[in-house]
Design goal:
The protein has a single domain, classed as Sporulation-specific cell division protein SsgB (Transcriptional Co-activator pc4, Chain A, Roll), CATH 2.30.31. The protein contains two helices and eight strands. An eight-stranded antiparallel beta sheet has the order 4-3-2-1-8-7-6-5, with helices on both faces. The longest helix has 14 residues.
Amino acid sequence: MPAVEQYARAHLVTDSSEGHRAVPVVLRYDPEADPHAVRIDLPDAPHRVFARQLLERGLRAPATSGGVHVWPCGRVQTVVEFHEGDGVTVVQFDASALIRFLRRTRTTATPVTR
């Protein structure tokens, strides 16, 4: 199955004077590497991998798994927050970009056999 890669624009939220800074982000899903995970690549930072289901749940209601928190912010935004040893990274997305990405992952997802 082919990997899904989508480029998006997000806002990196910081407590510095910059406040919100627009950044290019790469959303990636590779069902051969891990059919249950998605990856977010931020500029100048290691990529983050977490459960695809967490991203799906977080679009509708606050969801947490380990150090990753996802929640809707208003009607059109979604926040993804990464808690790591050296601090917190907060990324705000247009929910429509995440919805579009997740739809694409469903078309390439490996079917579950029982």
